[in-house]
């Protein structure tokens, strides 16, 4: 079973047991459970449910593994051909790492093996 969730403008495909990085969630601690309720699509083997735009009362439970994780450093340098016309800035995005625990979608029946034709 997998689901596609929307979090901070990103669409992420998740399954139970996956470890994913989300944008920084302020004030969370290790072991805390997050409920992600913006489920766009859910698939359980042979059956799928597509939200319009989200599936009502569908949730994904996630446990925080690492509350703050820094991403790669981006360096921006601008140089014009004028005397002393330089600018240098940088940015380092912060993330929260979570482990997906359970996906609950009402009305979706889990199919373990595909139907034989």
Features:
117 residues, mainly beta, 4-stranded antiparallel sheet
**Helical stretch count?**
0
Structural class: mainly beta
Query: In this structure, how is the largest beta sheet organized?
Result: 4 strands, antiparallel
**Can you count the beta strands?**
8
Question: How does the overall form come out from the CA principal axes?
Answer: elongated
β-strand percent reads: over 45%
Helix coverage percent of residues? under 10%
Low-confidence stretches: none
Strand arrangement, largest sheet? 2-1-5-6
Helix/strand order, N-terminal first = EEEEEEEE
Q: Estimate the mean pLDDT confidence.
A: 91
Distance between the termini: 21 Å
The radius of gyration is 20 Å
